[in-house]
């Protein structure tokens, strides 16, 4: 099945060319000009004839009437004028058959494509800090990046998921010093990141009483920089312990990475960056430090080297960008990082551009997102308002189990379903709204089975599965698509037909929330259909089969949509 919107757009172009051969200024593809009418009674698509008014020197209503008189398309029942709009009504029976044939034939690949074939997208997300616990502040970047990876994979791109670890800086020298003074391997192996954090806190407390410890910490970090075997061995072990902790969370979320190359990986590559900046005359002195002046572009200077010669985030990010381009030859490099880092990335991209790398202007993207709060409270380590992600996910599963046990006490595999629902609720609530919008995570909203939530959509998927399990064997008859002529079925069919376009919009705008919204709308529309029409009707087997095919298509697309945002779809709830 061709994209329905594209078919209407093609018929519209052919009609315009017949009626107004002198029309100018229209794009080759008119689908971007088609609108969805605000009310169903106004049609399925609408073309605003104002777009032609200036070049044709005619009033929009007159243009609409002329186009209506000449319009002829088999996939449309009719075209109607409404002021300056030409509204299109689909042929309901043909639309039902062509949509269901296409959706069911594609199965889990409905909406997939190959437009990304031969293209590579690098995605930098999650990017946890070594020796620090994985908290709710990392949730948005992790699930956003994971969903975008799935979306680009679905469209045929080669994706490279990168966890750019925060694993460089004097703090690691301090941690080694603290470990050498007060730590032991067994305690850290058992307690993980929590024990490393205690060591770091103790080091800072002791250093206030004995300033010589600060110098000891710097000396250990210098040993890391110089490749001292003992320092590197402890440093790598700290990383291993942290990643082991993080992997538990990633496994629960179903998140995987192709690369864990973090800041330390690029430490020995920054010299080349500094040398290139020098050669290209971009570095200037600023109180002993080295910076790139960006005043002309409305930004403060980009700090490359501190006065003591130490590198900074920008230096390592420049090295990382050049390494990724040389290694992966990406067509896009996405940084899924909170909006507070907007200046950092504008500076980074501008410096790359000034270095002569024109691809930085079009291929480097900062995919920003909003702040996360919890039950109305801003997260703050200092104030003790910090929710650790493993604890949040565990609590979500426990709460989901309580609700499921109450609603469906005889359900088998309740613990497994509670895991799918609890984790899904957390992910879904994070991806529910536009990514730049701040998120206030609240339990009563996230785990609500009746609102626009993950559990609601999952429950609709399970409802579809239940209907299909109860279905009689109707393989010997043909479906009667006239049974899908009502508004509720047609709304479902429209939503199904638009899903491929939604996937592409989500990729183009880096907005998984478009898919979240699409499956929510599909779930709401299916439940409206379910309550207003009998799906299984003994006296109408051909109509029953058509409704079952519609149910199967809805189930498939909900499952695909949930998969693309990183949420599982239980078959029973």
Structural write-up:
The protein is an alpha/beta fold. Among the domains are: 4-90, Arginyl tRNA synthetase N-terminal domain (Gyrase A, domain 2, 2-Layer Sandwich), CATH 3.30.1360.70; 169-259, no CATH class. It has 22 helices and 13 strands. It has helices spanning 4-19, 50-56, 60-70, 92-106, 139-154, 170-182, 185-191, 193-209, 212-226, 229-253, 263-266, 270-279, 313-328, 342-354, 359-363, 389-407, 414-430, 443-446, 454-469, 487-509, 513-532, 541-564; strands at 45-48, 76-82, 85-90, 120-124, 158-162, 283-286, 289-292, 302-305, 332-336, 364-367, 372-374, 377-378, 439-441. The chain has a 4-stranded parallel beta sheet, with helices on both faces. The chain has a 3-stranded antiparallel beta sheet with strand order 1-3-2. Strands 6-7-8 form a 3-stranded antiparallel beta sheet. Helix 6 (170-182) packs across helix 8 (193-209) and helix 16 crosses helix 17 (414-430). The model has no long low-confidence stretch (mean pLDDT 91).
């Amino acid at each position: 099945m061709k994209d329905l919107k594209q078919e209407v757009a093609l018929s519209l172009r052919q009609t315009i060319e017949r009626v107004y051969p002198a029309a100018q200024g229209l794009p080759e593809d008119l689908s971007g000009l088609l609108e969805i009418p605000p009310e169903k009674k106004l049609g399925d698509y609408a073309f605003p004839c104002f777009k032609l008014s200036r070049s044709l020197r005619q009033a929009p209503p007159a243009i609409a009437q002329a186009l209506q008189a000449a319009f002829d398309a088999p996939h449309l029942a009719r075209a109607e004028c409404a002021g300056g709009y030409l509204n299109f009504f689909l042929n309901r029976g043909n639309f039902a058959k062509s949509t269901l044939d296409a959706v069911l034939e594609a199965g889990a690949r409905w909406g997939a494509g190959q437009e990304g074939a031969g293209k590579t997208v690098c995605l930098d997300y999650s990017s946890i800090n070594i020796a620090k616990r994985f908290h709710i502040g990392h949730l948005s970047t992790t699930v956003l990046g994971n969903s975008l990876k799935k979306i680009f994979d679905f469209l045929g791109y080669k994706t490279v998921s990168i966890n750019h670890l925060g694993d460089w800086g004097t703090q690691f020298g301090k941690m080694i010093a603290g470990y050498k003074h007060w730590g032991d391997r067994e305690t850290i192996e058992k307690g993980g990141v929590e024990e490393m954090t205690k060591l770091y806190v103790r080091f800072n407390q002791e250093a206030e009483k004995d300033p010589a410890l600060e110098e000891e910490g710097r000396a250990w970090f210098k040993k890391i920089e110089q490749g001292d075997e003992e320092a590197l061995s402890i440093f790598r072990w700290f990383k291993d312990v942290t990643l082991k902790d993080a992997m538990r969370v990633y496994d629960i979320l179903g998140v995987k990475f192709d690369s864990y190359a973090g800041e330390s990986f690029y430490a020995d590559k920054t010299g080349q960056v500094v040398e290139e900046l020098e050669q290209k005359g971009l570095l200037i002195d600023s109180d002993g430090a080295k910076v790139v002046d960006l005043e002309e572009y409305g930004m403060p200077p980009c700090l490359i080297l501190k006065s003591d010669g130490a590198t900074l985030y920008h230096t390592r990010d420049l090295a990382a960008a050049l390494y990724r381009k040389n290694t992966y030859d990406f067509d896009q490099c996405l940084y899924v990082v909170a909006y507070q880092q907007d200046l950092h990335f504008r500076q980074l991209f501008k410096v790359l551009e000034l270095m002569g790398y024109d691809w930085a202007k079009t291929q480097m993207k900062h995919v920003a997102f909003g702040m996360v709060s919890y039950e109305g409270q801003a997260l703050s380590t200092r104030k003790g308002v910090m929710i650790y992600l493993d604890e949040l996910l565990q609590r979500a599963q426990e709460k989901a189990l309580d609700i499921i046990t109450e609603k469906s006490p005889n359900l088998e595999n309740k613990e497994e379903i509670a895991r799918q629902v609890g984790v899904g609720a957390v992910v879904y609530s994070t991806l529910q709204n536009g990514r730049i919008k701040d998120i206030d995570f609240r339990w009563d909203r996230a785990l609500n089975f009746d609102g626009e939530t993950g559990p609601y959509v999952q429950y609709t998927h399970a409802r579809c599965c239940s209907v299909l399990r109860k279905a009689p064997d109707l393989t010997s008859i043909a479906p009667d698509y006239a049974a899908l002529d009502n508004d509720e079925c047609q709304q479902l069919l429209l939503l199904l037909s638009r899903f491929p376009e939604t996937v592409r919009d989500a990729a183009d705008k880096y907005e998984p929330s478009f898919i979240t919204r699409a499956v929510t709308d599909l779930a709401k529309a299916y439940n409206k259909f379910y309550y207003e029409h009998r799906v299984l009707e003994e006296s109408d087997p051909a109509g029953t089969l058509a409704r079952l095919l519609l149910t199967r298509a809805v189930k498939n697309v909900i499952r695909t949509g949930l998969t693309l945002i990183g949420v599982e779809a239980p078959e029973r709830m």
